Amino acid sequence: MDTIKYKILKEIGEGRGKITPRYVFLLRKILLFLAIILLSLILFFLISLLVYSIQESQLNLLFGLGLRGLKIFLISLPWILITIIGLLFFTVHKLLREKGSGYHKPVLYTLLIVLIISIGGGFAIAKSPMHQKIAEAAARNNLQKVSNIYNNYAKRQMKGAFIGKVLEAQEKKIKIRELEGQDLDIELQSFQKKPIKDDTVIILGVKKNGAIKAIKIRQIKKGVGMK
Question: Which fold has domain 161-221?
Answer without folding.
Answer: OB fold (Dihydrolipoamide Acetyltransferase, E2P) (2.40.50)
